[in-house]
Amino acid sequence: MKRVRLLHVTEFEYDGPVYESYNEVHLQPIDDELQNCVGFRLRTTPVSAPAASRDYFGNSVHRFNVIARHRRLRVEAESVVMTQEPAVEATASDTLAALDGQRAALLDVHWDFLMPSRHVPAPTGLETLLRAAEDASGGTTAGFVHAATALVHEHFRYAPGATHVHSSVHDVLAAGAGVCQDFAHLLIALARARGLPARYVSGYLMPQDGAGGPQTVEQVAGGRASHAWAEVLAPGLGWIGVDPTLGAPTSSRHIRVAYGRDYADVPPVRGVYRGQAGQRLSVDVLVRPALDDEGCEHIREPDHTTPPEPADHPAAAQQHQQ
């Protein structure tokens, strides 16, 4: 098992005083058979009293309000998570031919993960990718999932700035590029179009040792920003975690925070405020092994990235997962 420490800092700076800021965050890692969140702390400046609950999909969600006037809001989430490697696929999944006879049963149980959603609307323009994934699948549902993952990775360019937080699958197809959020949505679209339930996963990626300089996908998507991937249900086998940004199955380096139909269900930070001021958003994430070379557990403050241009008012601030 691996012990991972996470620090996710979001800062909003406003052009003038704002007030009545209402916020919702998905920042606490989930507990399941592959990972255990052994510690979580959420702090805000100005100080607030976050209230925790579960959302529709069973994720931990925290809500807090800052009523007084303020010009800056800082949200800091710190977590310690124990992770382990997913089990090797020991059994065979159902065939694609058998899947065609299970559509009604799957739709009855997994409606939310089969129907179109905000960022994954009714699929169009996917025919070529679908045909290629089927041809490379070996005739099984698990084979289709892995083939589709490889196709998204190979045919679409990782390019921060090519899309925005509200982009849909159609935007990614048109641009031929995007970030992890977009690639997860595209893979979900392919799976749903073939009749396989698929869900969006938000979280973090711990960088691999020797991953290279700051311009590599490993360094941008891992340890410097939120990450996103997908899980697809292969009948006869179960949910399969796959990362189309890396073109590979998920591993113990993937720390899961929340599940949803797409990004709109689980943005890391979402909120609104009252006031005539524009805002500037900066986000920094630190994902590292919890123990250093001397066996000590500690964490340092991250250096903040350059904030983007001010957003329009009123603010409904969301973070684009890279």
Describe the model.
There is one protein chain. This protein has 322 residues and is α+β, with helices and mostly antiparallel strands. It has two domains: 2-84 and 266-289, Immunoglobulin-like (Sandwich), CATH 2.60.40; 96-263, Roll (C8orf32 fold), CATH 3.10.620. The chain is built from seven helices and 14 strands. Helix 5 (169-175) links the parallel strand 6 and strand 7 (177-178). Helix 3 (127-135) packs across helix 4 and helix 4 (141-155) packs antiparallel against helix 6.
Helix and strand topology:
Blueprint: E1 2-25, E2 35-45, E3 51-54, E4 60-66, E5 70-83, H1 96-99, H2 103-109, H3 127-135, H4 141-155, E6 157-158, H5 169-175, E7 177-178, H6 180-193, E8 198-205, H7 217-221, E9 227-234, E10 238-243, E11 248-249, E12 254-260, E13 269-274, E14 279-289
Parallel strand pairs: 6-7
Antiparallel strand pairs: 1-4, 1-5, 1-13, 1-14, 2-5, 3-4, 8-9, 8-12, 9-10, 10-11
Helix pairs in contact: 3-4, 4-6
Features:
five-stranded antiparallel beta sheet, 2 domains, 35% strand, single chain, 322 residues, globular
Give a short synopsis of this structure.
With 322 residues, this protein is α+β, with helices and mostly antiparallel strands. It folds into two domains: 107 residues, Immunoglobulin-like, CATH 2.60.40.2250; 168 residues, C8orf32 fold.
Radius of gyration: 20 Å
Total count of helical runs of at least 4 residues:
7
Secondary-structure-derived class: alpha+beta
Distance between the termini: 26 Å
* Amount of beta strand: 25-35%
Major sheet size, sense and barrel closure: 7 strands, antiparallel
Q: Residue-averaged pLDDT, rounded?
A: 88
CATH top level of the largest domain is Alpha Beta
Low-confidence runs of at least 5 consecutive residues: 211-215, 299-315
Count of domains = 2
Bin the helical content: 10-25%
Instruction: Give the strand tally.
Output: 14
Report the CATH architecture of the largest domain: Roll
| Shape category | globular
Order of helices and strands: EEEEEHHHHEHEHEHEEEEEE
CATH topology of the largest domain: C8orf32 fold
